[in-house]
Fold:
Amino acid sequence: MEQQGPVCMKINDIDLLLNIKILFENEIILYGAGYYGEFLESLLCQAGVCVSYICDSNKRNEKLGNTPVIDLSELKEVVTEKDYVIIIATTSYTDEILNVLSKHKIRCKDIYSLSGVLYGISVHISLESFSPEFRSGFILKKDTYLQERRLEELIRRSAEISINMAFHNTPGFLLFQPGKVGSSTVYYTLKKAGVPVIHFHSFDADIYLEQLECYLKQSDQQIRMITLVRDPVARDISMYMQRFTELYLDKNTVDADILQGIYKYLKQSLTQKYSEEFQWFDKVKKITGIDIFQYPFDKENGWGIVRQGKWEILILKVEKLNHNLKILEKFTRTELKRFVKDNVGEQKNYKYLYAAVKEKLGLSADVLDQYYECNERFDHFYTEQEKNLFKRRYLHGRAITGRDSIDTGFGGKDVVL
Structure:
């Protein structure tokens, strides 16, 4: 029989955020019979969603749970009968599976990712289609996961401080900056090179950082700090994506319509005079006594160094990061071969949502003017040319990246969103 229906080779996770009932209203095929395939088959079964088949290129079993397992040749036959929704049940090989589906011209109604399903269930967890038992179990698993993540972060940070003090008699370089400005890339670059470094966003995050703050205030040793700045709109969008994917059970934090949620988040951010990113430098002043904005910054080259008393502070602009590897080498007195990209949006499990956001998001001129105009703190770090390019990037639905995008230091791609 000749195949009917559309060919769909695009992940449409954003649709699940708007309408999770898609899972209940369509015939479902999972692609992937490994760990995540088994996990997702069980989860959907508990949620009351029927899975028709599980496809795996290396078929090992006849069934997974209560669901028949088929291979690729069988999948090609199955999809001739009706339109199915395919969910790719993996965290690492989604693009490769998309290529397989495309190569074999597998027709389906839509394709979603494992992460898209989890996000969709989370923002619609109060839906009456989900039983009270499923709802409470899902929320408990999410809360447990977040608690484990926080504990791992606490252990990592305390270990770093202890090791640095034991072997170097100093906490090391302080990588201290607001979230979502590319600091993870700098952190892992320094760690790989053996540079003692402690990475954090606030001194009051835990008892170890409170103790570190006391040490820094009392110490007479030279203290070196590295901090970063980023286009504030890109940074705030990235922050919303982070909160969406980690804290999306909080209805006050996120919106099922992710584009509308981002827009509201940006508007809320503008209730602060400088937005969260630039207000953050007041924390630096509180700890060090240094007003960063009273010192020159090389806007064209994207870096500046402030020296005052025992403090030496390197400020790097994310959009020029790759051009300033030598500056970071000189500051840390360590040879660095290249930047180690980490925490990059295009590599995260929400990258398909991110792609949809980049394609669809548009901001009004008044919102952009509030971010970029009459903002002396933004002007301290960025040129007029950069400002105009940033505004064009976001205006009225224009793609977030494009030919006129600012060089972020990584081939024109955003570093952390």
Q: What stands out?
A: The longest strand covers residues 223-229. The first helix runs from residue 13 to 18. Confidence is low (pLDDT under 50) at residues 1-7, 398-417. The chain has 18 helices and eleven strands.
